[in-house]
Amino acid sequence: MISYLEFEKPVAALEARIAELRDTAAASGELDIAAEIRRLETKSAELLANTYRALSPWQKTQVARHPARPHFRDYVERMFTGFMPLGGDRLFGEDQAIIGGFARLGNRRVMLIGHEKGNDTQSRIRHNFGMGKPEGYRKAVRLMEMASRFGLPVVTLVDTSGAFPGVEAEERGQAEAIARSTEACLALGVPMVATIVGEGGSGGAVALASAERVLMLEHAVYSVISPEGCASILWRTAEKAPEAAEAMKVTAQDLLALGVIDRIVPEPVGGAHRDPAATCTALAAAIGEELDHLAGKNADALRALRAERFLRIGA
Amino acid sequence: MSWINRVRNALPFAAPKRDTPDNLWIKCPSCGEMLFTKEYEDNQSVCPRCDHHGRIGADARLAQLMDPGFVLLPAPKVKEDPLKFRDTKKYVDRIKGARAANPHPDALTNAVGRIEGKKAVVGVQEFAFMGGSMGMAVGNAFIAGTERAIREKCPYIAVTAAGGARMQEGILSLMQMPRSTVAISRLHAAGLPYIVVLTDPTTGGVTASYAMLGDIQIAEPGALIGFAGQRVIQDTIREKLPEGFQRAEYLHAHGMIDMVVHRHSLRATLAETIDYLMAAKAA
């Protein structure tokens, strides 16, 4: 069962009609109904394609947050083999909002790190809705530094509304943990490829995305603050979120033009959640290509590449 | 005000002459004490009664910290309003307004000079300029400051004050987090110290990047320092925040900063810190 977004209502109506006809066809076996179903299916597919070709920044934000959108564990299952999760920051605890460990992408051995939002109430709570705490970012630092020591490229999958805003997170130095994680990305002596797969929310995203190659799924969003947050500060009402999303330039297409990201990975028609397998195939191929391009560069060259990449932005 | 006064004051020739300028007195925002502005400023904008550290601008800060004769660095040129951002007001108009009200063209001003005879480049964030917010101009000034420090072979000192990233520059403001971090790593690669002085308030993306990466982290008493805003946290946890939460003393107690230093001692502390950190280089 697909859950439809508000702007997908016309598609939903068509697809419901198709399902209804199918049931009738199954019962009666009439041929003219089969023709009608094909006609509606074509129409529905066209409508979906047209809708997704012209998504507004706010609509993309909703797609990026779609409950059925693939999450970290889906990518792990479909893109990687032999994932070995590694736990803890060795300082305070184990944060399930940020997961990392050894994994194989094809025949490449990598360190895989990413945010996990969870897909039902229980797992969402366990993963804190993908909002990392200081121990999560410090675990990422630990894993990145180890990857760098042992020559494993780092692959990150970013999907967070932002780092967790809470008393304990502040107490344990949320800001410092994020800053150190960004610093660790930039200091890596091994290749790093980051992909914004869903929401790239502010500092909590940057901390895992300060890579020399930054990819984005076609309908992912990446921004300094959530559209709702921006709207409630600048417009004094969260209802202006669609305007804020537009003004802030949060889409992959805008960010490619601004030089903030390097590559857009296309999603299946109707978004990643309509065909997770195809999404994963495309993403695995893209990350693999990027890693192959970077292979053979030495530590200093990689650091220089990363530094220059960021210094160039906006200049 | 009675109507007659209102009419009289509206007429420039009839308005009563004031014996005293508007700003002769200032009210301490913490204890409410009425203070002579002159006395307050002579005390480095610290309330003589309750020791509240008032917010000060870049010019006052530089004058307090550096030996006379320091030189301001030119503000780096940046692409203005890269996103053509408009909320209830155009961003270009907001910048214009901020420039009219402030002495410097954006929220971070660098100076090169000496602190008790020790060479340093100091960058000061101006909270009065759009909340000290970090956009391209602040990022580029930060980078320029560190580059100058590398050329001068001296430390870079950042005096932070900011609500966070400048939302009107969208993702480009966020990119100042890795950009400033690159600048710090270059300073470190040159073997030079980076010292942070956290002042009231320092929050958001600024705290989560260059404000927390100092070799030495100093904060002014009572300064609000944090990642998330207090309202956001309260909305998340729906509980009362602990006493002194996100204040300098709280961060010190939680191991996030080296020391809380009174404004009167800040200059001497910086000089002493530089002396230690640069000792091996000087020898």
UniProtKB/TrEMBL annotation, chain A:
Domain of life of the source: Bacteria
Reactions mediated catalytically: N(6)-carboxybiotinyl-L-lysyl-[protein] + acetyl-CoA = N(6)-biotinyl-L-lysyl-[protein] + malonyl-CoA
Listed pathway(s): Lipid metabolism; malonyl-CoA biosynthesis; malonyl-CoA from acetyl-CoA: step 1/1
SUPFAM superfamilies: ClpP/crotonase
Enzyme type, top EC level: transferase
Protein name: Acetyl-coenzyme A carboxylase carboxyl transferase subunit alpha
Family in the record: Belongs to the AccA family.
Lipid biosynthesis is among the record's keywords: yes
EC id: 2.1.3.15
Protein localization: Cytoplasm
Binding partners and assembly: Acetyl-CoA carboxylase is a heterohexamer composed of biotin carboxyl carrier protein (AccB), biotin carboxylase (AccC) and two subunits each of ACCase subunit alpha (AccA) and ACCase subunit beta (AccD).
Molecular function as annotated in GO: acetyl-CoA carboxylase activity
Protein keywords: ATP-binding, Cytoplasm, Fatty acid biosynthesis, Fatty acid metabolism, Ligase, Lipid biosynthesis, Lipid metabolism, Nucleotide-binding, Transferase
Its job: Component of the acetyl coenzyme A carboxylase (ACC) complex. First, biotin carboxylase catalyzes the carboxylation of biotin on its carrier protein (BCCP) and then the CO(2) group is transferred by the carboxyltransferase to acetyl-CoA to form malonyl-CoA.
Sequence ranges assigned to domain CoA carboxyltransferase C-terminal in this UniProt record: 39-293
InterPro entries for this protein: Acetyl_CoA_COase_a_su, ClpP/crotonase-like_dom_sf, COA_CT_C
TrEMBL record, chain B:
Zinc finger (C4-type): 28-50
Pathway assignment: Lipid metabolism; malonyl-CoA biosynthesis; malonyl-CoA from acetyl-CoA: step 1/1
Subcellular location, record wording: Cytoplasm
InterPro entries, sorted: AcCoA_carboxyl_beta, Acetyl_CoA_COase_Trfase_b_su, ClpP/crotonase-like_dom_sf, COA_CT_N, Znf-ACC
Superkingdom classification of source: Bacteria
PROSITE patterns associated with the record: COA_CT_NTER
Catalytic activities: N(6)-carboxybiotinyl-L-lysyl-[protein] + acetyl-CoA = N(6)-biotinyl-L-lysyl-[protein] + malonyl-CoA
Keywords from the UniProt entry: ATP-binding, Cytoplasm, Fatty acid biosynthesis, Fatty acid metabolism, Ligase, Lipid biosynthesis, Lipid metabolism, Metal-binding, Nucleotide-binding, Transferase, Zinc, Zinc-finger
EC assignment: 2.1.3.15
Cofactor binding comment, as recorded: Binds 1 zinc ion per subunit.
Cofactor: Zn(2+)
CoA carboxyltransferase N-terminal domain mapped to chain residues: 24-283
Record GO terms (molecular function): acetyl-CoA carboxylase activity
Main location class: cytoplasm
Residues the entry annotates as binding Zn(2+): 28, 31, 47, 50
Subunit structure: Acetyl-CoA carboxylase is a heterohexamer composed of biotin carboxyl carrier protein (AccB), biotin carboxylase (AccC) and two subunits each of ACCase subunit alpha (AccA) and ACCase subunit beta (AccD).
Protein function: Component of the acetyl coenzyme A carboxylase (ACC) complex. Biotin carboxylase (BC) catalyzes the carboxylation of biotin on its carrier protein (BCCP) and then the CO(2) group is transferred by the transcarboxylase to acetyl-CoA to form malonyl-CoA.
Cross-referenced NCBIfam families: accD
Family the UniProt entry places it in: Belongs to the AccD/PCCB family.
Name by which UniProt lists this protein: Acetyl-coenzyme A carboxylase carboxyl transferase subunit beta
